[in-house]
Automatic annotation (TrEMBL):
Record flagged with keyword Protein biosynthesis: yes
Organism this protein belongs to: Lupinus luteus (European yellow lupine)
GO MF annotations in UniProt: translation initiation factor activity
Protein name as annotated: SUI1 domain-containing protein
General function of this protein: Probably involved in translation.
Ranges of biased composition (kind: Basic and acidic residues): 1-23
Length: 87
């Protein structure tokens, strides 16, 4: 039989433990993605809450290319910049 007296049993590791303790980026910031049904198969998707240092136009361009849809960036007084995708 093996003697475990000299070795400690490993404790569980939480990879997100440091992020929960700190007030770093992403700790309290949320990105909201909403889908609103329009006529028939058409829908409107909005992405809100991205960081201000991101280039919304570049993100929009990649999303439009990836999902083959139309979209634009809307400036809202209360909510800031919002990406809208029309699918």
């Amino acid at each position: 039989m093996v003697d475990l007296g000299t070795h400690e049993i490993p404790k569980s590791f939480d990879p997100f433990g440091e992020a929960k303790e700190s007030d770093g980026p992403g700790a309290k910031e949320y990105v909201h993605i909403r889908i609103q049904q329009r006529n028939g198969k058409k829908s409107l998707t909005t992405v809100q809450g991205l960081k201000k240092e991101f280039s919304y136009e570049k993100i929009l361009k990649d999303l439009k290319k990836e999902f083959c849809c139309n979209g634009n960036v809307v400036n809202d007084k209360e909510l800031g910049k919002i990406i809208q995708l029309q699918v």
